[in-house]
Amino acid sequence: MSLEKDIRQKKFRNDFQKAAVNLLYTVGWLKDQMKLIFDREDITQQQFNILRILRGSFPNPISTQVIRERMLEKMSDVSRIVDRLVVKGLVKKVTSARDRRLVDVLISDKGRKLLERLDLREEEMDDFLKGLTEKEAIQLNHLLDKLRQARE
User: Fold this and answer.
1) Which of 12, 103, 117, 147 could share a disulfide with 18, CB 3.0–4.6 Å?
2) Do residues 89 and 101 share a domain?
3) Is residue 49 domain-shared with residue 110, that is, in the same domain?
4) pTM of the model
5) What's the pLDDT score for residue 22?
């Protein structure tokens, strides 16, 4: 399917507008595909993102501010998401070693085990981009990096 057929729009102002709409539409599509995998583990994409960030810093806890800076979606309410992960037993809050008034976050054993299960599904996640060759994926990465760098 083409973008025009998918969103039932025949004309765009120019190719730049079409590319922007195409990116947004494709991100939504990819999130929907990933959601099917995350739903099986009863987590959201944002929770998955936080768990991966925490696994990367393990065994060191990190602040919610550092988590926010590293999130894929900067608008996420990190404190609220962390609280939900605490309730699920996937992360722990610990008193900050730098400032006892602050709280840092650490992934739990249960959280690491959940990510290990999802690691087994990485190939399934990669398959969402199976319409591209490896060379095309490299080119797409280059173009997306170029797009963001042009606005820095």
Assistant:
1) 12
2) yes
3) yes
4) 0.87
5) 94
